Amino acid sequence: MDETMRIGVGVDIHRFCSGDRLMLGGVEIPAPYTVQAHSDGDVVLHALCDALLGAAALGDIGEHFPDTDAAWRNAPSERFVEEVVALLHKRSYRIVNIDVSILLESPKIAPYKQAMRQRIAAMCHLSVDAVSIKATTSEQIGFVGRREGIAAYCVCLLEEQS
Ligand code: MG
Predict the structure, then answer these.
(1) What's the angle, vertex CA 83, arms to CA 35 and CA 28, rounded to 5?
(2) Cα-flanking dihedrals φ and ψ of residue 3, to 5°?
(3) Which residues lie below 8 Å from residue 71, measured CB to CB, with a gap of 6+?
(4) Class of the 3-161 domain?
(5) Contacts of 52 by beta carbon, 8 Å cutoff, 6+ apart
(6) Are 43 and 147 in contact (CB under 8 A)?
(7) How far is the CA of 150 from the centre of ligand 1 (A)?
């Protein structure tokens, strides 16, 4: 057996501004604000891209999809994930599993977790049980607790196939 496992971590944070919805994990969620971003501001998918790129030591989302490039401005984040997944497949990496934590004071995202898992599984060509979505509040402290923004963390495991 000549297989190497590689782990990656990704983090993303966005500031809230006035609006009425959030894109999280490719799912639109009604919210008392939206995020300031060049793209759809999907912190879950941005953290996922960085975890996947990190596991393969292929740089970060800002290098691959610069917001100075008109081709990526306002692009749905799903396209970033699809590009990254294609890059990994080209290099013979297989995604083993993905684990996401979202830090958000409100709204509650429990009703949307399963839809996010399904969206991410489809983007990454995985079964739903290879994708985990978790969420926590920040106990009303820090920028998340003050409802100034949202953060997401993602860890993923890749298998290098040779
Ligand atoms: Mg981002």
Answers:
(1) 30
(2) -125, 135
(3) none
(4) alpha beta
(5) 8, 10, 81, 84, 85, 88, 95, 156, 158
(6) no
(7) 10
Task: For the chain, give every domain's residue range.
Answer: 3-161
Cα gap 23→146, rounded to integer Å: 20
Strand runs labelled E in 18-137: 21-24, 27-30, 34-35, 93-103, 131-136
The helix/strand/coil state of 84 is helix
20 DSSP assignment: S
What does the DSSP 8-state code read for residue 113?
A: H
For residue 23, count CB atoms less than 10 angstroms from its CB and return exposed for 0-12, middle for 13-18, buried for 19 or more: buried
CA 162 – ligand 1 centroid, Å: 32
Mind listing the pLDDT tens digit for each residue in 49-59?
999 999 999 99
Euclidean distance between CA atoms 96 and 81, whole angstroms: 15
pLDDT tens digit sequence for 96-133: 999 999 999 999 999 999 999 999 999 999 999 999 99
* Gap from CA of 73 to ligand 1 centroid (Å): 12
